[in-house]
Amino acid sequence: MTNGRLIVLSGPTAVGKGTVEQKLLADHPEIWVSVSATTRDPRPGEQDGVNYWFMTEDEFVAGERDGKFLETAVVHGMAHYGTPLEPVKEHLSRNVPTLLEIDLQGARRVRERATELGLDVVTVFIAPPSFEELKRRLIGRGTETAEQQAKRLETAKVELAAENEFDVVIVNDTVDKAADDLWKVIAEEYGLSE
Description:
Blueprint: E1 6-10, H1 17-27, E2 32-33, E3 37-38, E4 53-54, H2 57-65, E5 69-75, E6 79-84, H3 85-93, E7 98-101, H4 104-117, E8 121-127, H5 131-141, H6 146-160, E9 168-171, H7 175-190
Helix pairs in contact: 1-7, 5-6
């Protein structure tokens, strides 16, 4: 059904997945990144259709019911997230390097559904240099309340324990190195020159 392998990028909250992804895209704009749908409120500066597809609860549930998502999950017990299926299939069918950045639950769901959907998947885990560094990054970004930070850190402990479930682990000690390491994975999977 598809030519390319879907690169699934995951890791704990505040590990810097988005920052690594931004650096990767700045260096390699030929990569297509799936835009997830969510029911959470936009953060300052986020745009609908660019950062996420922001949906109401009713819209999201209808999409789930109609099979329009590759995966869905409730993240941190607060909001629904999901990956629209058709754009992923369309880009893979054209062998466009395709990247999906999702949480641990989503990565597991994609892996589970890959065979039934005819998708070939490579899972990549972005890890922090240490838990203390992860905590510093989460608090430093200042986008969550103290209660939300505590909940995210508890979730992060569980997510870090899942590192061995992934095909590739990249430590985000520096953004440049992590982005380069991620590009090497993509280049190898798509037969591109590094």
